[in-house]
Amino acid sequence: MRKTLIALMLAAALPTVAMAMPEGPGPMGGHEGHMMGGPGHGEHGPRGKGGPFSQLDLSKEQREQIRKLMGEQWHARKDLTQKYLDKLPAADQKAMQDEIAAGKQKTQADIRAVLKPDQQKKYDEIVKKQAERRAEWKEFQAWKAQQAQKAQ
């Protein structure tokens, strides 16, 4: 029970970690974790106007190093969380995934409700493109795993 509770608490923290993802290109060159963001968008990360690094007058090299360190931390947390989630029974994993998906859908609907009609249209396009990219990434990961299995 204690392990399940810890795993669920870590899983609940994932959205917070995702929101803390540093600005800039991710491992595939995109801006994962930033729904509407482009370079320098928002007030988070080493480049932001309101983040913890905003008053440090960082050089471009320092920003890149910090972005890299924050990205590594994010990936380490994600891997650690996944390690404990994998230990959950399948039913608990499915329930958690369903709950996360429902929360995501609700948040997207709430965001969409705040937008004007022309913004909603663009938002819908962005969400659709992100879903396509995620599907392509999953397909690539499956292919990569298949290639590794063939190599053995």
From TrEMBL:
InterPro entries associated with the record: Cpx_auxiliary_protein
GO annotation, cellular component aspect: outer membrane-bounded periplasmic space
GO MF terms, alphabetically ordered: unfolded protein binding
Sequence segments annotated as region (Disordered): 26-55
Transmembrane intervals: none
Keywords on record: Signal
Keyword ATP-binding in annotation: no
Bias-annotated ranges (Gly residues): 26-40
Superkingdom of the organism of origin: Bacteria
Signal sequence coordinates: 1-20
Protein name according to UniProt: LTXXQ domain protein
Source organism: Pseudomonas syringae pv. avii
